[in-house]
Amino acid sequence: MKYPVWFIRFLFGSWMVVNGMNHFAPLFPQPMGSKPLSHELIVALLDSHLFDLVKAVELVAGLSVLSGFYAPLAVILCLPVSFCVFYWDGPLEGMTSRAAQMGDSVIICNLILCAAYVKSYKSMFAFKSTPRNLGASGGAHAQPAGA
Fold it and tell me: Using CA atoms, how far apart are residues 130 and 41, in angstroms rounded to an integer?
């Protein structure tokens, strides 16, 4: 199971890096949507500069997924972006379009990677948890430095 996950990490991370980098250093034209709603959404994202944040998340998270540094966190950070890509490519562009295939691929890869890192998220799904006190050390009384 290790090699399929590596392959999906490579595909997903590469897609994220290329598409994130494309916004800051254009490699290919940004699709503007062929349907009215998809065009309106992309224009709103560009005009509000929210697209800059989305592309920065894609770039940083893609590099993290590729390198393996904080990969479980990066995969979770990519989930909202992947869902928006899926939604823009599928329902807004048309479920029979070529873009829909890409949107499906992105969300499926992201979900597979989330499943691969499920052990990293185990503590987030605790039924009942108690937060630690900030600044408290493991012992009952903290000792000053050099004491």
Answer: 41
Domain-by-domain residue ranges, the chain? 2-25+38-121
Q: What is the DSSP letter of 140?
A: S
pLDDT at 61: 95
- Comparing CA positions, the residue from 75, 87, 82, 85 lying closest to residue 120 is 75
Question: What is the per-residue DSSP string for 62-126?
Answer: HHHHHH-TTHHHHHHHHHHHHHHHHHIIIIIT-TTSHHHHHHHHHHHHHHHHHHHTGGGGGGGG-
Supply the pLDDT for residue 94. 86
Provide the angle, in degrees to the nearest 10, between the axes of the packed helices 50-67 and 36-47.
90
Could you give the CA distance from residue 66 to residue 21 in angstroms, rounded to a whole number?
14
Phi and psi at residue 129, to the nearest 5°: -140, 155
Residues of the chain below pLDDT 70: 136-147
